[in-house]
Amino acid sequence: MKIGVSTFVTDQGIRPAPLGRAIDERRFDSLFIAEHSHIPVERRTPYPGGGDLPEFYCRTLDPFVTLASIAAVTRHLLLGTGVVLVAQRDPIITAKEVSSLDLVSDGRAVFGVGAGWNREEMENHGTDPSTRGRLVNERLRAIRELWTKEKAEFHGEFVNFDPVFQWPKPVQRPHPPIYVGGGGDAAFRRIAELGDAWLANSESPEQLRPQIERLREVAGREVPVTVYAVPEDPDVVEGYQRIGVERVLFYLPTMPEAETIARLDAMAQVATRFR
What is the pTM assigned to this prediction? Predict the structure, then answer.
């Protein structure tokens, strides 16, 4: 099984370059980082994790600036977004950011995407939460056109542009893999049409097994599964291995550099057992 790391990179924790070097040196296969453009002060949407929203949600660095910094000091690490909030992003700019990251990293970008949960955050971007699913699907279709066509154009309900040139094209062909976050049939249909893998939330192996079966029914094919924010517990990792999960992402709390390195050392000891 492949083992990577998931985290929130903020202005209060370890800097991107030493974080990336430390993860790469310990032979983790990937790093997936979260994105929030901002957090509204007044919020009606409850935090999915329950209780108060942790402060680090307000302090995340831009994911593409962060991953480009890490790309410059690493050689093997896959560089993933976990997840980019496509409902809050211009598709033309996002397509260029992902393809630029893929170029500067020599083909190591992974485009993890999601529809998002924070309705007030979406509304600040002019997004209607009730139509965000259709919006995400359409923007992903437009991004794929920009990546794969010399003269790309798109005409839809939310995205509309006449033929355009855009470079760089991604190094990976036909494009960087799209890992779709979320759960349920809406996300599974998005994977069936537009995704290459499922980026699942950290539910237990027992909870995840029937969902993987349902995903394969909806998609009509075997779909690789990566599980986000997994504890570094060997028994839990073995459980995911038994149900055919391709990759788990250990959750790394946002901490200063010395504490981060110590936590990564402990994670690496567990990861070694599964390589």
Answer: 0.97
